[in-house]
Predict the 3D structure of the following.
Amino acid sequence: MGDVLAGFHAAWEFGSDSVLIRFERGIRTPKLFQALGERRIPLDAIAGVTLTPGKRGTVVLRAEPRPGADPLMEAAAGQLKEASDPYRLVLPAERETLAEYYADELRAALAPGHAEPAERHLVRAPEAPLQFKAYDAKASFDGRSVVFRWFWTGASSAKWKAGDQTFAVADLCGVEWRSPELFEGHLRLVRRAEGGAAAGAPDQDPGAVVFGLGYGPVHESLPFAAAVLAAVRAGGPAAPSEGAAAVTAPVRRDPGDVAERIRHLGELHSAGLVTDDEFSSKKAELLAEL
């Protein structure tokens, strides 16, 4: 087709085998759209197309993602609000005829069996490195492993005693994301060693971080979850490029951060939440990071 259909917050460029969605970066554009920037959706990843009346004199063109084709939508698991759905294009009602034309063109281009679940991801996930702040930790993902570094003010004693966590992609079998806009939002890594079973409440599970007001926002935590899920589904990270270092040098921690962590460790020790041995051992670990 090669044409562009512009709506509110996004424009769709129609190609012979895909739709390129470019999102605006204005202050009224949903933050998730701004974080995504643009996405190329292969026609093989589309299960259907609808055109329905919208609110306040608009119409909505929506491409229905094929189950299992998009790691972002798989991680979201139906929890996105309509306004943050990247597969919706909202247009003025006067453009309904034009939108209907493109809807018909897209439907005609879909291959037989397009509604069947995809055997693999067909849409690219957000690229690592990614990071965000949850209520109880800072989460980071470099494409190879996920790291949780606990915050003193939010992490439970169980997480504190377990220490900061690093999970290799190869040791994971899935990701569980619960929107921060819903009750008990969290991101949990599903580990192979546990057979895919949840390891207790998220606030007690060292393999999970919990959200809260202002923590783990959708536009940060969902792309993160999608990137990890895509790496897991692909069987682990890609091999290092030629000339790349096989081992990354350890990162030195900020002395002020280490001092604050030792101070908080002392408070936990004084309160009887950690033993003398745990206090000495963890303090030595922290000093070794300098």
About this structure: The chain has two domains: 4-109, 130-239. The radius of gyration is 22 Å.
